[in-house]
Each structure stands twice: as structure tokens, then as C-alpha cells.
Design a protein that fits this description.
The protein has twelve helices and twelve strands. It is α/β, with parallel strands linked by helices.
């Protein structure tokens, strides 16, 4: 893989549009997204505002039907859509390298059941979907990628270099499975609290009671990560969650954006995954179970008249 390659972004929501838009400055990018978003980009381009500001003009479509080639497939759907995404992308399963930048613990494993070459990624950039055709880069974060299945370090280096050329600071992870767990732990602290309070990330770190709640939630989740074999300390989990919340202080967390739109959240992929692992190891995670139940109840409220 070299620069100026064919990139397919499947799931052009906030984060997928952001990455695809940046990559389109040096590569041939096609975004697959919802009809209203696609139509708006066709009319006036993809507007990225905030920490990054420019108008990108990638190719757009609502399905992969017309896409002939993809060297790199970036899967950026909601975690609950990963299996259906893999089915839709099956014809790219042999020759393309697939990269997941999704929330949750199991996406890379699900994709590896279909794709021969899978790279897993984590990012803490804060991106808000403002309206069709426009996303806001609300907070600068860190991105790391690592080999997951069927790829070597050289493959990952080429993707890293492509991201760096596009202005996305990217590191190669020494242990991507650990990084996936650390991200899930951090997300478990930020996303449910943001959804339940309807506050931007910065408030979670600046309000003492919310910061204490977030710290307690991620410390509990870190114990589960350790039981899974990943060296994630309570201190690292808490410090990382607070750092991410502060760096993305103006961002509305993805789970909050889902709640505001009356959509299903990723609570099952994030907190649910942690709770399932806790059960396997016979650990108690009452705070995570509590916020899990509250967010599930909030989702149920969409349908209650």
C-alpha cells in the first residue's frame, strides 16, 4: 500500500467522515453513508470544522455496488452493525486490508471471520456529526493501529504512513488487543455518563462528582481488563479517561449523539462487553451494571408515549 490509494470508508458517520475527509486530500476515497449525508456531500462537499477546518470532496455512495477497487477498507459503523458490514464488504475480503476504528471489544474479531487481512485501530479524536454534509472536529486525540489477523508490521507501517501524510497522527501499537481494552474501559467511563447527563465531555472531568463517578467506573472496568490478561492499572485507566475528556471537552460523546437522535447506542458493545467478561471471571462490576441499566432504560424511553 502506498500513498494515493483507493480507500473505502464504510459507515460515514462522524468519525468515518472525519477520517475519510482527511485521507481524501492525498488518496482516492469513497464514503459509504446515509442518503441525506451523501446527497449533501455531493452538492457542497464534506465540511469539517473545529480543530480541523476545510472542505473535502471525496466520492460518496449509499452502497458499495459501484465501487470497483479498495486497497484499504475502513469500517466505521456502529458496533452493532459490524456483522452486517462484513457481509456487505465480502467481495473485498481477499485483496483489501480492513481497518476497524470502531468502539467496542469484538469488532476486529467479527471482521476477521470474513476478511483475510485485518488491522485494528483505536482513536480518541472527538468528532460530532452536526448535520448532513458537516462534522465538527471537537477534540484532538491519539490514534494507534496494530496487526490483528493476516497482516505484518510492514502492512501496518504503510497505513500509519498514509494516515500521517493525511494529518492524522498515528502510532503503531505494541499490543493492540490491550489498547482495545483500554479504549473500552475509557469509553465505559465517558460515554454512559455523557449520555445520561447530556453534557459535553469537558464537564465530566471538571465537575468533581462526575469526575469521581467516571474514575470509579473505569477503575472497576480496569479490574476486568486485568482479569482478561491486559496490564491496565486503575491509575492508568482513570488518568487516561480524564485526559481524553479534557482534550475533547467540547465534544458530545458518540453515545450522547445517539441519545439525542433517539437511536440505539453502543452500550452493549462497550459496557456490555465489560460486563460479560466480568461474569466470565466471576467479578462484580456494580457501577458498570448500574449505568448499563440506565442507558438501556433511556433507549427504551424512546418508544414510551
Amino acid at each position: 500500500m502506498t500513498l494515493n490509494v483507493d480507500v473505502l470508508v464504510f459507515g460515514a458517520g462522524a468519525m468515518g467522515s472525519f477520517f475519510g475527509g482527511l485521507l481524501s486530500r492525498r488518496n482516492r476515497v469513497t464514503l459509504i453513508g446515509r442518503r441525506d449525508h451523501v446527497d449533501a456531500i455531493r452538492r457542497a462537499g464534506l465540511r469539517i470544522t473545529g480543530k480541523t477546518s476545510f472542505v473535502a470532496r471525496p466520492q460518496v455512495a449509499t452502497s458499495t455496488a459501484g465501487v470497483k477497487r479498495a486497497d484499504l477498507v475502513i469500517v466505521a459503523t456502529k458496533a452493532y452493525d459490524t456483522e452486517s458490514a462484513a457481509r456487505s464488504l465480502r467481495r473485498f475480503a481477499t485483496k483489501s486490508t480492513w481497518l476497524t476504528v470502531q468502539n467496542g471489544l469484538d469488532n476486529a474479531e467479527v471482521l476477521a471471520r470474513t476478511a483475510k487481512r485485518v488491522v485494528a485501530g483505536v482513536t480518541s479524536h472527538g468528532v460530532t456529526f452536526l448535520r448532513p454534509g458537516e462534522v465538527r472536529h471537537a477534540g484532538i486525540g491519539e490514534t494507534a493501529i496494530g496487526p490483528y489477523a493476516g497482516v505484518g508490521r510492514s502492512d501496518v507501517v504503510r497505513i500509519r504512513d498514509m494516515f500521517e501524510e493525511a494529518g492524522i497522527r498515528t502510532q503503531i501499537s505494541a499490543d493492540i488487543r490491550r489498547d482495545l481494552w483500554l479504549k473500552a474501559v475509557v469509553n465505559a467511563g465517558i460515554n454512559p455518563l455523557a449520555a445520561l447527563t447530556r453534557l459535553r465531555n469537558g464537564y465530566l472531568a471538571s465537575m468533581p462528582m462526575l469526575a469521581a463517578a467516571m474514575t470509579a467506573i473505569v477503575s472497576e472496568a480496569a479490574a476486568v481488563a486485568r482479569a482478561e490478561g491486559h496490564d491496565v492499572s486503575d491509575r492508568e485507566a482513570a488518568e487516561t479517561a480524564l485526559k481524553v475528556a479534557r482534550r475533547t471537552r467540547e465534544n458530545r460523546a458518540s453515545m450522547l449523539q445517539d441519545v439525542e437522535r433517539g437511536r440505539e447506542t453502543e452500550i452493549e458493545a462497550i459496557t456490555g462487553g465489560i460486563l460479560r467478561a466480568a461474569e466470565r471471571h466471576r467479578l462484580q462490576a456494580p457501577l458498570n451494571a448500574f449505568v448499563y441499566g440506565l442507558v438501556r432504560g433511556l433507549e427504551r424511553s424512546y418508544k414510551v408515549e
